[in-house]
Amino acid sequence: MELVHNIQHADIxxxxxxxxxxxxxxxxxxxxxxxxxxxxxxxxSPGGRMWLIRGWMEGEIKTNSHFAEIMYACTACDNCxxxxxxxxxxxxxxxxxxxxxxxxxxxxxxxxxxxxxxxxVTINGNPYKLPQERxxxxxxxxxxxxxxxxxxxxxxxxxxxxxxxGQKMTRSVARVLIKAGVSVGILADEETCDGNDVKAMxxxxxxxxxxxxxxxxxxxxGIVKIITLDPHAYNAFKKDYPPLGADFQVFHxxxxxxxxxKEKRITPSTYPVTVTYHDPCYLGRHNAIxxxxxxILKAIPGLALVExxxxxxxxxxxxxxxGNFFTDILGSGEDSPGRVRVRQALQTGASVIAVACPNxxxxxxxxVKAEGLEEILRVQGIAEIIEQASL
Length: 391
Ligand code: SF4
Ligand code: SF4
What we know:
Layout: H1 34-39, H2 46-57, H3 65-72, H4 79-83, H5 93-106, H6 112-124, E1 145-146, E2 152-155, H7 158-162, H8 164-179, E3 184-186, H9 196-200, H10 204-220, E4 225-228, H11 231-240, E5 249-252, H12 253-262, E6 274-277, H13 291-298, E7 304-306, H14 324-327, H15 337-347, E8 352-355, H16 358-370, E9 378-381, H17 382-389
Parallel strand pairs: 1-3, 2-3, 2-4, 4-5, 6-7, 6-8, 8-9
Helix pairs in contact: 2-5, 8-16, 8-17, 12-13, 15-16
């Protein structure tokens, strides 16, 4: 059959038999596809999307704003890749969704907030439309300097650099690294978007341009090792930059901090609190980093770590992936991912939700407010917890 719309993996889309297992966690106890959980329609589930894409490729469904909205409601959380029962194509599920979004970009048919996001990143180098010269303002008072031959670059990313809640996490990470004697610098006003979410939203041309510019810049500065604040940047640097010529050693800040603890270069005293850890999708499912954040928390005297029912490989997305942090296509209703996640955290009896991603920090802070739980639950970055335990 001649296809009306084509994508790279068009030849395997028909293999989905719509059993629906992909929207659950591995114990099938609840839904674990955030967009299905938020909207409750099968078209918003991974299998439903596959069937929509099939109908769209074959011309039964026209490209329209509803189709685009459903494609962009996917947070790229990767749960379906883990849970689809059909091994011969499950690895390609998120790619098929990304390829479909890329085709929507090619056809000029993306939801307005997605279009605005691309425009802001293209013009300003960040989605906040803020002036680049102020990108390093967060660093004032932390002691971290601009990169000049340090062992590591600390790459922040747009949310950590500009968002108030993200900046709080960033400042803690910088202070903890400096206090531990790590040789680390930042790019400040020379840092631009890493492009991870640009790629997830299907703007492959813009992603390639951002990635290539960053690779050239990092190499010119002699950067070899990169610590990322943000799991999204970690994912892009680790997986998507190497095919474009990058050969940097990349670490997430929790990996470095777990080592610093082992070497006793970080020595927290005590923090008597019950904490539950929220796995960021781009650190957990996308990159299989589950241990280091938990190792840090377990090493803090007095701290009790409790797990949410959906954690680790079954972690429930905060709703901020795939660009939804900026486009807000999933909204903030009662079953929005952040609010669902906060209720899951509440069930553990914890008073702190530990996070390792600035996007998760913001999404969950907003959700705590929306649930009216500010007196019971607070959201803290792993480095903020280390600092609190060192007071
Ligand atoms: S994507 Fe996989 S698990 Fe989901 S409906 Fe299709 S075959 Fe079933
Ligand atoms: S990647 Fe996540 S949000 Fe997207 S379809 Fe799969 S489970 Fe749902």
